[in-house]
Specification:
about 20% strand; 20 helices; six-stranded antiparallel beta sheet; five-stranded antiparallel beta sheet
Length: about 675
């Protein structure tokens, strides 16, 4: 089990040794995984580079950090946004329990990042890659300050390597620093009419914002004549309305403040830039209120019109209600659900896959109260679908490790709300009420909707079926709502032990009564598992060919009808076992569409349902892991084991469950007795 930062620190201080991280060693393979570096790196601790290293020098600032030789400007843009809020920064970079002070320094530092719905503490050693005793990646402008370089290393460890940080969206960094949810806006002619208001409210609510200019592969970080850079991640650090004194009188101008993470290189050269004559239109008092400076620091102002005309994408990271910022006006109601697309059970693909789309996880949300300022009596619902842990797979899958994801939303009528889970027929005959803008191979897709009050089902999916991955669904709304997983409850819906008709009974007697009477079923006139194995092999030889029944399957069959606990079947119990086995085989053949003699997990669920057994996704996933082969299928013998054991477990549970309750009580002996019997 990995040690915590506190344990590592105390151990190092006692031993007098500086920490060396065994999980993320100081080797070039943890920098570049797809190629060799141009020259070997020299890994140095800050104490070996400068005389008086400092973790954070006089407070973290967006002006502190500069980009190095790694294409992770999106990460730097997120850092710049983070430093705007001291409390958020200290949650990611704790400053109370770590420093370079001699009494405190142990060579280890830790940072906290939000990953897939929870905060993860990442501990690293402070050996950093250098060339000529200079940090080569993210660094502070002050040679003595090291929080940004160490934070980048911790994030690289979390993602698998430094190279894994190449390329990304600012939204990814902002969310991993805050636990918030990011909404993206196209700019230019596609910008919403109220976008400046949205940005102003975002600043008031201490949201994080980033912007960028689209670029083709050969245009990444191409420098434009106006001082802006294509394919480069910027941070929006301020929004303000100012009163300009013009010849025709005062005019209200909307301004946006933007920062280039490169620092003292490349700033906007147009109107309201650092060297612009427009600043003469403002009073000295207004300039002081804006804390206006014209330093060569990468930060600049521009008009809102120029902003939406020159940048093409804006990302706003909305903080969740648990964000610990004093005086923040967080009004969002947030729900979160974790789940997984699993091959063979819940990876149903998009709606193009008509036979499996309904197998995807489903989530139900109830909207009741309309937005206060909405004239259409509608509710705002922002839906985010995020795939979890994909960046770490780059080492194995390459740069494009994301699945192609999207979601659909369905408004439920009264009769649809009564079923625990929507089935295939529902989706064949009902259109979606809303959906994600597209299916995209990005970490996250987020869309805003205006929906009438009611109950809705959200179905997240990959575009293709049978693609596996973890995901997170987050729901933000202005008003309180209810949401939960929409799934079957594991249960038996009818008698799973079929009755024997008079004709069946006579036929069985003519075939098997003499078998018992002659004592071939055993001296005691009962069938044990080994004898049942022979009988079943003979009875189903024409149907299943050379397949042999497993002895465990026979034991499980016996347990269904062995009411006296002898481990054997009397004649009437034996007949009932044969009828049940034949019924199971008939349904097995019916749903074995390709006549392969096996069922995939989707077909398995349909067969169990036909036999009267409803299974939750959680239970079906457990069965998939336990019984399926490498191809994700089960044969008839496997199916019999699944069927008999599930029936036995449900019956054992029901015997020990109080009427109307969803919980059962066992003592240890009862639990073992029931489990062994299966």
């Amino acid at each position: 089990m990995p040690q915590s930062y506190d344990q590592i620190k105390q151990s190092c201080l006692r031993s007098g040794r500086l920490y060396e991280d065994p999980e993320f060693d100081a080797i070039d393979d943890n920098v570049f995984t797809s190629r060799r570096p141009p020259r070997p790196f020299v890994w140095r601790r800050p104490t070996e580079m400068v005389q008086n290293p400092i973790l954070v020098d006089a407070g973290a600032s967006r002006m502190d950090v500069a980009q190095g030789r790694l294409g992770d400007c999106w990460f730097l843009a997120g850092i710049a946004s983070l430093t705007q809020h001291e409390q958020l920064f200290k949650r990611v970079c704790p400053t109370d329990d770590q420093s370079f002070d001699k009494r405190d320094y142990c060579g280890a530092f830790h940072f906290r990042f939000w990953q897939g719905g929870e905060w993860v503490d990442v501990t690293i050693d402070d050996r950093l890659p250098t060339i000529n005793n200079q940090l080569i990646f993210v660094h502070s402008k002050s040679r003595n300050e090291f929080w940004s370089a160490l934070m980048e290393k911790a994030y690289a460890k979390l993602c698998g390597s430094y190279e894994a940080l190449k390329g990304g969206q600012t939204s990814e960094a902002m969310e991993d620093f805050t636990g918030g949810m990011t909404e993206s806006f196209d700019l230019g002619s596609k910008a919403p009419q109220n976008l400046f208001t949205i940005m102003s409210k975002a600043i008031e609510r201490q949201s994080l914002m980033g912007c960028s200019i689209n670029a083709k592969a050969n245009q990444i970080e191409a420098k434009l004549d106006n001082g802006l850079v294509m394919g480069h991640a910027y941070t929006v650090t301020g929004v303000r309305k100012v009163n300009a004194r013009t010849r025709s009188g005062k005019m209200e101008i909307e301004l946006v403040r933007v920062r280039n993470p490169w620092g003292n290189e490349r700033e906007w050269t147009g109107a309201w830039g650092d060297k612009s004559s427009e600043w003469a239109l403002l009073s000295d008092q207004e300039k002081r209120e804006m804390e206006l400076t014209f330093d060569d620091d990468g930060e600049f102002w521009m008009s809102y019109r120029d902003f939406i005309s020159n940048f093409q994408r804006l990302e706003i990271c909305m903080l969740s209600p648990d964000a610990s910022i004093e005086d923040s006006k967080v009004t969002w109601e947030a729900d979160m659900h974790k789940d997984r697309w699993r091959v063979g059970s819940t990876a149903g693909g998009c709606r193009n896959n008509q036979n499996t789309f309904h197998k995807n996880p489903q989530f139900r949300v109830t909207l009741e109260d309309v937005d206060e300022d909405d004239d259409d009596d509608a509710c705002t619902l922002i839906v985010s679908l995020m795939q979890v842990g994909r960046r770490k797979l780059r080492r194995k899958l390459g740069a494009n490790s994301n699945l192609t994801i999207g979601f659909a939303i369905y408004k439920l009528e009264d009769e649809d709300t009564k079923v625990p889970r929507l089935g295939k027929d529902y989706f064949l005959y009902h259109a979606s009420t809303a959906r994600s803008n597209t299916f995209i191979n990005a970490r996250e897709i987020t869309n805003r909707f205006k929906l009438k009050p009611g109950i809705y089902c959200i179905v997240p999916s990959t575009f293709d079926a049978n693609e596996e991955g973890d995901f997170l669904v987050r729901l933000f709304s202005e008003k309180e709502k209810k949401s939960d997983v929409q799934d079957e409850k594991t249960r038996i819906t009818r008698n799973v032990k079929p009755r024997i008709t008079a004709n069946e009974d006579a036929g069985l007697d003519s075939k098997y009564k003499s078998f018992f009477d002659r004592g071939q079923a055993g001296q005691d006139g009962q069938v044990d598992a080994y004898e049942l194995k022979q009988v079943l092999g003979a009875a189903f030889a024409k149907d299943i060919g050379d397949q042999d029944f497993n002895i465990e399957t026979c034991r499980s069959l016996i347990s269904m009808y062995d009411d006296n606990g002898t481990g054997k079947l009397e004649y009437d119990e034996f007949k009932q076992t044969l009828v049940t086995t034949k019924q199971c085989h008939a349904e097995f053949k019916k749903y074995d569409k390709d006549r392969s003699g096996t069922l995939d997990m989707y077909e398995l669920q349909d067969v169990l349902d036909a036999l009267g057994i409803k299974m939750s996704t959680r239970c079906l996933t457990a069965i998939t892991c336990r019984y399926s082969n490498k191809k994700g299928t089960v044969d008839f013998d496997d199916f019999l084991q699944i069927y008999t054991r599930v029936v036995g477990l449900i019956e054992t549970f029901n015997k020990n469950c109080r009427r109307g309750s969803s919980q059962a009580s066992f003592d240890l002996d009862e639990f073992i007795e029931g489990a062994v019997g299966l």
